[in-house]
């Protein structure tokens, strides 16, 4: 499975029970751009050192899928089909190219993608 950035961020919260099982799974992966999104967002510096540390640990302990030519081609195709962010196109393309589910709370960002197995851990509680 590919975990979207928001899943890692929720999993880093104390007491999280919805997302942590996904990131702790042996088959959890992240797209290369996810590390940039999670550790490079503008307000990262205002997080507590504990929060920063938890995010660093989660990112470091999750397998990062390298950005390769196949993922790039798929991301280009996705962006040509419909307006979407570069990061979302890379994350979705990573899941598509590896044939694994994408775990994300942001269903709206991905629901239009044909063939993408999108799973929202929050859907059951909504």
Describe the structure.
This protein has 126 residues and is mainly α. It has a single domain, classed as Rossmann fold (3-Layer(aba) Sandwich). Helices cover 49% and strands 10% of the residues. The strands form 2 sheets. It has a 3-stranded parallel sheet with strand order 1-4-5. Strands 2-3 form a two-stranded parallel sheet. Helix 7 links the parallel strand 4 and strand 5. Helix 1 packs across helix 3 and helix 3 packs antiparallel against helix 4. The longest helix has 13 residues. The model has no long low-confidence stretch (mean pLDDT 94).
Give a topology summary.
Layout: E1 2-3, H1 5-11, H2 20-23, E2 29-31, H3 32-39, H4 49-61, E3 63-65, H5 69-81, H6 86-98, E4 102-103, H7 107-110, E5 118-119
Helix pairs in contact: 1-3, 3-4, 5-6
List keywords for this structure.
49% helix, 126 residues, two-stranded parallel sheet, 10% strand, globular, Rossmann fold, mainly alpha, 5 strands, three-stranded parallel β-sheet
Order of helix and strand elements from N to C terminus:
EHHEHHEHHEHE
The CATH superfamily label reads 5'-nuclease
What is the third-level CATH name, the topology?
A: Rossmann fold
- CA distance, first residue to last residue: 22 Å
Strand order in the largest sheet: 1-4-5
How many structural domains in the coordinates?
A: 1
- Our count of helices gives 7
Percent of residues in beta strands: 5-15%
The main pleated sheet reads as: 3 strands, parallel
- Could you say which structural class the secondary elements and strand pairing correspond to? mainly alpha
Low-confidence stretches: none
In CATH, what is the class?
Alpha Beta
Number of strands: 5
- Gyration radius, rounded: 14 Å
- The name of the CATH architecture is 3-Layer(aba) Sandwich
How would you describe the shape? globular
Please estimate the helix content. 40-55%
Report the average pLDDT across residues. 94
